[in-house]
């Protein structure tokens, strides 16, 4: 596995004078799921929390800071960026029932955001480290396999069940694909290869796990639902997130080069339309 290469944590996304918010506990994760379920009652395109977590992770790894006025409509609305001056509060998005629901969603969202930032900016050497970034990835196949026959019968057999980590990776790549300029390969060949390799490890999770089920990521005592190769690919994707975070932080935002229009030759007609040669007019 590729280990993170930066020996020094960077924490510029967090206020250094305050401790990061506590991680979301089971009750708060359930609350976030309930909010998204309620939003889905008004808009069926609202994604699951696992997708949202992947989307959020990509935003945190992006080369350019992308604010809520830009990314929330892409995740929960029509994609059109909100016209909000910097520092002004966000207007209520149509997906939310009221301002209080939106405020609570953003409170939970930012707590998870700060947790991810703190994890990615901490120097870790192993996935077993308690400080290591842990995606909110679900083993839905394991969850379904752990149901009783009666419960599975109620679900029906017409649902395609995603593989472990697949929905999270789809959320990550959704952000990458919707901000292509911010994920364009840098000119430096080594950095471009680093970017490509890291994204390939995440894209691998968007594909179906067709290997032999050997472990259950939903419940260690549950029926096998995930291949060992998938578990290893998931670990590689976590290191890929570290690599992407470090790559863009080391390079900084993309600088747009303003090209100056070439001046006309001295014997060319002047651009002002006077009919004189440039050397006899504005070039004098």
From TrEMBL:
Domain of life of the source: Bacteria
Classification via InterPro entries: SEC_C_motif (IPR004027), YgfB-like (IPR011978), YgfB-like_sf (IPR036255)
UniProt region (Disordered), positions on chain: 1-25
Residues in the signal sequence: none
Skewed-composition ranges (Low complexity): 1-23
Name of the molecule in the record: Zinc chelation protein SecC
């Amino acid at each position: 596995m590729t280990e993170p290469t930066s020996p020094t944590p960077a924490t510029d996304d967090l206020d250094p004078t305050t401790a990061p918010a506590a991680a979301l506990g089971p009750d708060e994760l359930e609350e976030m799921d309930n909010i998204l379920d309620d939003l889905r009652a008004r808009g069926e395109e609202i994604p699951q929390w696992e997708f949202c977590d992947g989307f959020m992770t990509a935003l945190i790894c992006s080369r350019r800071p992308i604010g809520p006025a830009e990314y929330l409509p892409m995740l929960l609305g029509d994609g059109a960026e909100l016209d909000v001056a910097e520092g002004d509060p966000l207007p209520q998005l149509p997906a939310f029932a009221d301002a209080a629901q939106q405020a609570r969603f953003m409170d939970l969202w930012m707590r998870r955001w700060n947790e991810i930032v703190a994890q990615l900016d901490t120097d870790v050497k192993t996935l077993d480290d308690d400080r290591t970034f842990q995606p909110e990835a679900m083993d839905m196949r394991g969850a379904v396999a752990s149901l009783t026959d009666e419960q599975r019968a109620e679900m029906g057999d017409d649902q395609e069940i995603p593989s472990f980590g697949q929905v999270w990776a789809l959320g990550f790549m959704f952000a990458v694909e919707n901000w292509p300029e911010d994920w364009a390969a840098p000119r430096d060949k080594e950095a471009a290869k680093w970017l490509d390799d890291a994204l390939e490890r995440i894209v691998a999770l968007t594909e179906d796990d067709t290997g032999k089920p050997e472990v259950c990521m939903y419940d260690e005592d549950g029926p096998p639902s995930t291949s060992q190769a998938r578990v290893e690919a998931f670990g590689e994707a976590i290191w890929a997130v570290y690599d992407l975070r470090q790559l863009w932080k080391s390079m900084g935002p993309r600088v747009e080069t303003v090209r100056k229009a070439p001046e006309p030759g001295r014997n060319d007609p002047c651009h002002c339309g006077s009919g004189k040669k440039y050397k006899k007019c504005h070039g004098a």
